[in-house]
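Subject — a protein and its fold
Fields — amino acid sequence, C-alpha cells
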Amino acid sequence: MQQQLDQEQDVLTYLLTTLVGGALDAEGEQMLDDVFNITTANLNQLTPQGWAAIGDRAIQAKWFLDHITEIKEKFKLLIDAQICFREFQGWLMEAGYKGAEKIKKAQIDVAVARAKYGATVEQQDYRLTKNKEQFAAETVQENGCISMNANVSKKS
C-alpha cells in the first residue's frame, strides 16, 4: 500500500516537474495564498512530503464537507442558545428594574405615610398640650374664684 502511494507520488512529481512553474498571475497567486493558503507557483517543485501535506488538508476538507450539516446545526444551536441567554438576561434585568421601581414606590409611600402620621401626631400633641394648658388655666382661675368667694363668704 505504502509502495503504491510512493509510486503515485513519484509519477505525480515527475509529471509536475515537466511543467513550467511560476505564477500565472501574481495578484491571483497572492489571493490564493491569502484566502486558501494554496500556491500554484511551485507545484512543480513539491516534494512527496509537500504532497502528503496537501493530501492531509484534502482529507480534512472532505471530512468538513461530509459533516457540514452537523457542524452548521451545532453552531446554530450555540448561536440560538446565546441569543436566548441574552434575551433571558434582558428579561431578567427589565423585570428587576420594574420590581425595584415598585419597591422604591412602596418605600416612598411608607415614608410619606410616616411623615403624615408624624405631622398628625405632632399636631394632635400640640392640641392636647394646649387643651391641658387651657384646662389648667381654667382650673386655676376657677379655684381662684372659689377661694375668693370662700374668703368673701367667711368674712361675711
